[in-house]
């Protein structure tokens, strides 16, 4: 009698866990990533590369389940990333050696993420976001006769990856984030010439989401 009882109990427990997971809920989310930036071209110094950096995101959102397979989560996120100019390329920038190699961005993002729940435990997600970057710094071009005229502007991002349910409404996620701000102007204060840094950043990130 024990084996038939177990065969009946397991599907019931599985259905119960699925039902618990698919309840709509608020959540808090923390993301950490390794950042790789595109090369900057057409800037003082020519083609300039960047070393890998890091990113951190903190988000608050609401995951709404349409059914057991699909859910949509609008969220608001504070996002920060930091990376540096490649030390081999830094001497090519005209203001070297007085310049710093730091590059950073702080942004407020409004995101939407669609989840396809493959099973009760695994999901695939695709998201997009728009927002405002209040601090856009490329300090290697912000010294001497070079001035980074813009320090804020619009930002956008795309995200995709896989999710793993840790039980209840808590998840672990691993995926990619592509983030980009509008071009940043670099002005030569002596000549009045203006160039642009127009690069994006790709992050490989791990994300923890806790249901509230």
Could you explain the architecture of this structure?
It contains one helix and 13 strands, in the order αβββββββββββββ. It is 9% helix and 64% strand. The N terminus is likely disordered. The longest helix is centred in the N-terminal third of the chain and has 20 residues.
Secondary-structure map with pairings?
Elements: H1 2-21, E1 25-37, E2 40-43, E3 46-48, E4 50-65, E5 70-85, E6 102-117, E7 122-138, E8 146-148, E9 153-167, E10 170-181, E11 184-188, E12 194-197, E13 200-211
Antiparallel strand pairs: 1-4, 1-13, 2-3, 4-5, 5-6, 6-7, 7-9, 8-11, 9-10, 10-13, 11-12
In one word, what is the shape? elongated
Low-confidence stretches: 3-20
Q: Indicate the proportion of strand residues.
A: over 45%
Please list the strands of the largest sheet in the order they lie side by side.
Answer: 1-4-5-6-7-9-10-13
> What is the residue-mean pLDDT, rounded to a whole number?
90
* Alpha plus pi helix count: 1
Number of strands: 13
From the alpha carbons, calculate the radius of gyration and give it in angstroms.
Answer: 22 Å
Judged by helices, strands and strand pairing, the structural class is mainly beta
Largest sheet: 8 strands, antiparallel, barrel
Straight-line N-to-C gap: 40 Å
Order of helices and strands: HEEEEEEEEEEEEE
Helix content: under 10%
